[in-house]
Write a structure and sequence with these properties.
heterodimer, A: alpha+beta, Arc Repressor Mutant, subunit A, 3 strands, 53% helix, elongated, B: 2 domains, WH_DNA-bd_sf (chain A), WH-like_DNA-bd_sf (chain A)
Chain lengths: 96, 197
C-alpha cells in the first residue's frame, strides 16, 4: 500500500523529527525529545538514521560544560519531506 | 512515541500537522525587552515634557538613558538566546527588522537632531536603509546588508551637503542598496534558471 512512500520518512518518530525540523531553523536534542515524547535512546537511533540518509545535520557541541546535540534539516531532507508529502497527498487524493 | 506501528496515510498527515503546530506554538519570550523599552521611552518622554516647565538643564540629557538601556538589552538578548533550545526562522526575520529599526532611530535621535536644515535627504536615506538591511540580515545576503549600512553612512554624509549634492548621496545610496545587489541577484537567478532548463 505504501510501497511508493519514502521508507526513511514513513516511520512515526523519524517523520515527527523531520516535521519539527522543517518548522524551525535548528533544534537541540532535548527539545526534539520533549516534542516527540520519545526516549533518548530511541530518538538517538532515529536521528542517526536520518543523518545517515543525509536528511539532517547533527552538530555536537558543549553548552555550559554540558554536551549539546543540535539537529538541522538539510536541503536534501527538505526535498525528501516535500516529496513525501506530495506522495501522501496523491495517495489520499487531496487536491491543493 | 515509542512503539513503531504501520501508519496510514491519514495518520502520517495528522502527525506532520501535529508536530508543525507544536513547534510553532512554542513561541516563548520573557517580555523583558518590551518592558525595558516600554519603560525607558515613556520616562524620557515624560521627563522631557515636565522639563518644558521645570527648565532644569541636567534633564536635557535624559534621552541618553536610551543609550544606557542598550546594556541591559544586550544582556537580555544574550540570556534569552542561551536559554533557547531551538532557533526559529522568525527570529532572523524579526531580528533584521528590530536591528534596522534601532539603527534608524539612533540616527534620527542622536545624529540628525543636530542638523535640522539639510535633513530631508538623510531621512530618505535612513528609510532606504531599513528594509535593505533587514532583507540582507534575514536572507544572509551580504550585498544588501552592506547596502543598508551604506545608506545610513550616506545619510550622515548628506547632512554635510547642500542641495543638489544631497541628490548625489541619494543616487549613491540607491545604487549600493538596490542596483548592485539587484545585479548580483539577477546573475544568480539566470544561472539557476540555466541549470534547470
Amino acid at each position: 500500500m505504501f510501497k511508493d512512500l519514502n521508507p526513511i520518512l514513513h516511520s512515526q518518530l523519524r517523520l515527527a523529527v523531520v516535521s519539527i525540523l522543517i518548522s524551525v531553523k535548528e533544534a537541540e536534542f532535548t527539545y526534539l525529545r520533549e516534542k516527540t515524547d520519545a526516549t533518548a535512546g530511541n530518538l538517538s537511533v532515529q536521528i542517526n538514521k536520518l543523518k545517515e540518509a543525509g536528511y539532517i545535520d547533527v552538530t555536537k557541541t558543549f553548552k555550559d560544560n554540558y554536551p549539546q546535540t543540535i539537529c538541522k534539516i538539510t536541503p536534501q531532507g527538505v526535498q525528501a519531506f516535500e516529496e513525501y508529502v506530495r506522495d501522501l497527498q496523491s495517495y489520499l487524493n487531496i487536491k491543493k | 512515541m515509542e512503539q513503531e506501528k504501520e501508519m496510514t496515510g491519514q495518520e502520517s498527515l495528522e502527525l506532520i500537522t501535529r508536530m508543525i503546530k507544536r513547534a510553532r506554538r512554542d513561541y516563548l519570550n520573557s517580555g523583558l525587552s518590551a518592558l525595558l523599552w516600554g519603560t525607558v521611552i515613556p520616562i524620557c518622554s515624560l521627563v522631557t515634557f515636565a522639563n518644558y516647565y521645570l527648565k532644569w538643564p541636567a534633564l536635557d540629557y535624559i534621552w541618553l538613558l536610551t543609550i544606557v538601556a542598550v546594556v541591559p538589552q544586550v544582556v537580555i538578548a544574550v540570556r534569552e538566546r542561551k536559554g533557547k533550545r531551538y532557533r526559529s526562522y522568525d527570529e532572523d526575520h524579526l531580528g533584521g527588522i528590530w536591528i534596522s529599526f534601532g539603527i534608524a532611530v539612533w540616527l534620527l535621535t542622536f545624529v540628525f537632531g543636530r542638523y535640522p536644515v539639510n535633513g530631508e535627504g538623510a531621512i530618505y536615506l535612513t528609510l532606504y536603509g531599513v528594509p535593505t538591511f533587514a532583507t540582507g540580515y534575514t536572507r544572509g545576503f551580504r550585498p544588501m546588508l552592506l547596502g543598508g549600512l551604506a545608506c545610513w553612512a550616506l545619510a550622515v554624509v548628506s547632512l554635510y551637503c547642500n542641495y543638489p549634492y544631497t541628490m548625489l548621496c541619494i543616487a549613491a545610496g540607491a545604487l549600493l542598496a538596490w542596483f548592485i545587489p539587484g545585479l548580483i541577484l539577477r546573475k544568480c537567478y539566470l544561472k539557476a534558471k540555466e541549470k534547470h532548463v
